[in-house]
Amino acid sequence: xxxxxxxxxxxxxxxxxxxxxxxxxxxxxxxxxxxxxxxxxxxxxxxxxxxxxxxxxxxxxxxxxxxxxxxxxxxxxxxxxxxxxxxxxxxxxxxxxxxxxxxxxxxxxxxxxxxxxxxxxxxxxxxxxxxxxxxxxxxxxxxxxxxxxxxxxxxxxxxxxxxxxxxxxxxxxxxxxxxxxxxxxxxxxxxxxxxxxxxxxxxxxxxxxxxxxxxxxxxxxxxxxxxxxxxxxxxxxxxxxxxxxxxxxxxxxxxxxxxxxxxxxxxxxxxxxxxxxxxxxxxxxxxxxxxxxxxxxxxxxxxxxxxxxxxxxxxxxxxxxxxxxxxxxxxxxxxxxxxxxxxxxxxxxxxxxxxxxxxxxxxxxxxxxxxxxxxxxxxxxxxxxxxxxxxxxxxxxxxxxxxxxxxxxxxxxxxxxxxxxxxxxxxxxxxxxxxxxxxxxxxxxxxxxxxxxxxxxxxxxxxxxxxxx
Length: 469
Fold this sequence. Notes:
Blueprint: H1 11-19, E1 24-26, H2 33-36, E2 50-53, H3 57-69, E3 74-77, E4 93-96, E5 103-106, E6 111-115, H4 120-127, E7 132-133, H5 144-150, H6 157-160, E8 167-173, E9 179-183, H7 188-197, E10 203-210, E11 212-213, E12 217-226, H8 230-242, E13 248-255, E14 273-280, H9 284-290, H10 294-297, E15 302-303, E16 306-309, H11 310-313, E17 326-334, H12 339-349, E18 358-363, E19 385-393, H13 399-414, H14 430-435, H15 439-452
Parallel strand pairs: 2-4, 3-4
Antiparallel strand pairs: 1-2, 5-6, 6-10, 7-11, 8-9, 8-10, 12-14, 12-15, 12-16, 13-14, 13-18, 17-19, 18-19
């Protein structure tokens, strides 16, 4: 398959395709085209030949078939919220699912069926009406599709597992334009691969999840500390999480400045800080007691940990998810948070180059590690921590400085890494994609790719290349 940046399609082909859609077909110059091709990472500026804004499964099927017949490259957009910008292609056809946002809760069975264009904010809005939730991303504007297909980290994972561990079934449009339902009881091999293998095998148009009683009030928020306390705080954070109950998840974050918020006193604005962000989904009383040690680690500059709605906690990092900023990332798993890893984190994080950047250490364990390593395609369940180094800036002229800092930091941390999380990968090549899986899992994923997409039609992703076709 070739590249398609210069490809022109005859109107005689376009007209019947357009008339067969319920959604909208856009081409360069059409109203809405530039908005539709915009994604979270402002560094991405690609121009599809066609954008199909799908409103139902029939539109997705038609788009896949049209792309195959006309040899068009395909990209698939859910919410468009990832570093690589794989949701949008240069030339070819972008299949945009962002208008497919239906969410239907069954409060009796504690399940939910959500379309692939829904965001976690929309998902939580519906499920929390019934006091229910499942593990989902920590930025509310992130789409459910990409997060889930890669595994799905979130505040609830230590208690209820990853998003994929709560997945009951999915609907998939396949590479030949077919439609299949996928679950443990139907196309079970693909259900295994979908749970961690990303969008390599087809276009998932809807997801069914198991829900759990959560909230509506939980204990959460952040406590901010002076950056000079970072090393000692990381040692204490490590000890704290070693004995934490599954109801508690905590993140350790480096910021170059306190966030510009009403709760930040004038004399602290612009001060470099570290922060511990928490979610406790037990009783408010248990949360107060179990989080008390955080106030004993060191005197917080600002303490914003308190009872709050779960939906408020889910928007805690939304400022990091604003569309249009320039973004570059490095990441990895840590089997343990060793003393040497802590030294490296502190040394490099002290030189953050942008006030919008963040370094985040996530505690795993709990229910994440109790699922078998081979039960799903998600690998490295034994690791205790994940780190993500996210450079975020607004002026493209500063790109080199910020990207070099990120890459140097990532290289220094790689020696401590035990694999990586596929959802946090940038455009880093096949070797890093392989690092997201154990060798046995990767071989199984290649076999699934050979079966369901031997021509690699769905390759604009963290691609698992077929060995046939």
